Amino acid sequence: DADVTQTPRNRITKTGKRIMLECSQTKGHDRMYWYRQDPGLGLRLIYYSFDVKDINKGEISDGYSVSRQAQAKFSLSLESAIPNQTALYFCATSDSRQGVWNQPQHFGDGTRLSIL
Amino acid sequence: GENVEQHPSTLSVQEGDSAVIKCTYSDSASNYFPWYKQELGKGPQLIIDIRSNVGEKKDQRIAVTLNKTAKHFSLHITETQPEDSAVYFCAARRYGGATNKLIFGTGTLLAVQP
Questions:
Q1: Which of B41, B43, B49 lies nearest to residue A1, judging by beta carbons?
Q2: Residues of chain B contacting residue A44, judged by C-beta atoms under 8 Å apart
Q3: pLDDT tens, position by position, A41-61
Q4: Quick one: pLDDT at residue A102?
Q5: What is the Cα–Cα distance from B2 to B7, expressed in whole angstroms?
Q6: Cα A89 to Cα A57, A59, A100, B78, distances in angstroms
Q7: Model confidence band, residue A24 (pLDDT cutoffs 50, 70, 90)
Q8: CB-based contacts of A85: which residues, under 8 Å, 6+ apart?
Q9: Of residues A32, A53, A36, the one with CA closest to residue A95
């Protein structure tokens, strides 16, 4: 979904480095999410944010932190990267104004992160 | 918490045949079940979804069925085409749905052979 932009698209780095993945959206959605995708494991939720002042942990938040700089921007940080954080990372958005039932999540095209 | 199992992990069909992917969920309070298609190098895209108060939903060649008693739901693709080749994910969301947290299955790689 071109309305959800993730940068960088690919990143290779070394163990112990601090990494930031960025997500920006032009959809005007209030909710944003960070997922991690590993082969055979599907997508797992790392953090989610309902608005700029609301940040919540997901299933696998250990080793990660997030910042919601504005309604349109949500970044994910790895403070000290380790090899088992090598994965594909996706940002998603949804619009709470669509109601409880009709609130699909829209995904960016992902960041492939490799930690050596 | 919710757990979603998805089968098969890989599926190969001939062009024109039908494909069926099945998911089971554990939390009887789950009430929303979307299906996503992920093409190579892209993020997942929603292709169809179903609420718990509906048993079946169709959109052209795609349909989803839900059996709440058995806690399983299925994606049906008829008259498959090569462009249907992708990874498909099912997901479930529990009401209290204010969080809109989705639990995803592990994905099915569908290959449509021309």
A1: B43
A2: 104
A3: 889 999 999 999 999 999 899
A4: 64
A5: 17
A6: 16, 14, 26, 31
A7: very high
A8: A63, A78, A113, A115
A9: A32
DSSP per residue, B52-104 = TT-SEEEETTEEEEEETTTTEEEEEE-S--GGG-EEEEEEEEESSGGG--EEE
Comparing CB atoms, the residue among B46, B89, B100 nearest residue A31 is B100
Cα atoms found within 13 Å of the Cα of residue A71, Cβ hemisphere only: 8
Place of tokens 């462009």: B83
Cβ within 8 Å, pair A109-B41: yes
Rounded Cα distance between B114 and B111, Å, is: 10
Tokens of A76: 């994910």
Question: How do residues B2-28 score in pLDDT, each as one tens digit?
Answer: 889 999 999 999 999 999 999 999 988
Query: Is 80 exceeded by the pLDDT of residue B38?
Result: yes
DSSP state of A83: G
Gap between the Cα atoms of B92 and B103, Å rounded: 5
Q: Would the CB atoms of B44 and A94 count as touching at under 8 Å? A: no
